Amino acid sequence: MAQTRPYVAALLRLAGPVALARLGIIGMAIVDVVVVGQLAPDELPHQALGWAPTAVFLVAAIGLLQGVQVLAARTLGEKNPEGAGVALRRGLVLALVAGLLSAALMWLGGERIFTAFGIGADLAGPSTPVMMVLALSIPLHLLYIAGTYFLEAIKKPGIGSAVMWAANIVNLALNLLWVPEHGAIGSAWATVAARVFLSGVLLVWIFLLRDGAHYGVRKLGAKGPSFSALLAVGVAAAVSQAVEAGAFSAMTVIAGRIGAHVVSAYQIMLNLMAFVFMVALGLATATAVLVSEAIGRKAPHDAARAGWTGIGLNAIAMIIAAIAILMFAEQIGRAYTADATLAALLASLMWVAALALHPDGAQVVAASALRARGDNWFPTFSHILAYAVVMPVLGYWLAERQGMGVAGLLFAIFWASVLSAAVLLLRWRVLANRLPKQATQTD
Q: Ion transport among the record's keywords (predicted)?
């Protein structure tokens, strides 16, 4: 039997800083929600709806860049470190193009993005300018993501984490400065300014890396992943993540159809779940990097061990998070909003959110492991089934038709995640020990 490496320590060393960076991303969103919820609670629905379409475009474009991480790590396994710099530069081009296109589409759509789905003019009108400001932040955030994916592939995730948390301080300060006077739109401008800082500092840091020459950061003409190779990974991930984000935004629309109080509660619960999900995403990223590197070394048994280790560590982390949420349910509700009625509703829903954490985390780790070994489209089709077909239909039926409101939406998330996790884990079990075709394309 082939000898395999132990991967617990390697995964934790990489996943820790990666998770911190991902927590920083959602930390910005939490600050936005908490500051608006405390200082301008009547504008929480406007903020929630403004974020709904923004999240779809942003998450889809982030998926498009996943090839930077996967293929940069694979070039290291193939003993071609300068290829990582090629992946970075081409990823930055994709980030800029995708970000500007996303922002343009949101500006062209305007208020129709909301009214087309049955949102009343009283909510759609004030939500539209919030969305249009947030759209400006998308290209900036995508530049940061491309840079972060490169750093994670070369096992320097701490840089992205440090810059992200510095940007969180900027975001908090600007929220406290602008929200009291400008409400949700002030919070949106704080996000834009924080992301200017975020992308600018990170890219300068990468350019000045001491071992940048080793990784081809400043070298033109090196051999590495082509645009088509990056897109072969990224398009599948983009479709998958767009479907998932679109489905969650559709759930926000369902909440908006029921009423402003429901959409506020749903946005806060989703925000809390997303915070915990960043831990799972950190483990998923670390798993993808180590699986990709093993595939580059043509070591399928190491790839299988890395994948199963990531899946197991995620289970432990999600159980711990669920227990913490249940223990501090009332305190969490009061921290999010000054509205006592809304805070009590949030506390009563914490057990449903805790229930969904493990399957939601398991599906993202399994999907990342599969894509890292070249199985790009199966996770996409799985996500379409679970999140685009099952979840919105079930959410509509439970929340609107059965009158369960926010609880119905959360149960829909739970069952969709169970379905997705089950399908992807079975796929990983079947394919884990097979060596995929080496499809890396170079110039």
A: yes
